[in-house]
Design brief:
- The protein has one domain: START domain (Alpha-D-Glucose-1,6-Bisphosphate, Chain A, domain 4, 2-Layer Sandwich).
- The protein is 27% helix and 53% strand.
- It has 3 helices and 7 strands; from the N terminus they run βααββββββα.
- A 7-stranded antiparallel β-sheet has the order 1-7-6-5-4-3-2.
- The longest helix has 27 residues.
- The N and C termini lie far apart (41 Å).
């Protein structure tokens, strides 16, 4: 079952700083834990371009404890990065790609995002409309939390 997302956010921080913070596991944990229904238990860098983690994600009737990896597929500092995430929870799985394009704008960063995701197992049986709704909820709150956390961290 596929999900597509796209949009943009303005981050109140310079692009070079935003770029650096995007790869900091502690910043990513703080950001993700601001999303309603998400609790990251761990996220660790295990290779130059790979992270391993565990999180409980639950919105409405969709909830699970996921183990997974995030891999950087492509990056051109400080303007473009493409990630792939894969996670499993019991008989359920989720995977997706996300591309971020960063542009400097008056000392701030315009971040354009575009991605696709897929889910399978019992999770896919809840229906496309619910999956779309939950996906949009997580992305909406996630991008807002990302912008807030990056701005806060850049001031430290």
């Amino acid at each position: 079952m596929a999900l597509k997302i796209q949009g943009n956010i303005l981050v109140d921080a310079p692009r070079d700083r935003v770029w650096k913070l995007l790869f900091d596991p502690q910043v990513l944990i703080a950001m993700a834990n601001k999303i309603p229904g998400v609790e990251v238990e761990r996220l660790a860098q295990i290779a130059d371009d790979q992270y391993d983690g565990a999180a409980t994600i639950g919105v409405a009737m969709i909830k699970g404890k996921y183990q997974g990896t995030i891999t950087v597929l492509e990056k051109h500092a400080p303007e473009f990065v493409k990630f792939r995430g894969d996670g499993k929870s019991g008989g359920n799985w989720a995977s997706g790609d996300m591309a971020l394009t960063l542009a400097e704008q008056d000392g701030k960063t315009q971040m354009q995002y575009e991605g696709t995701g897929n889910v399978g197992g019992m999770l896919a049986s809840v229906g496309q409309r619910l999956i779309d709704s939950v996906g949009k909820h997580l992305i909406e709150h996630g991008t807002r939390a990302l912008a807030e956390e990056l701005a806060a961290q850049s001031k430290k």
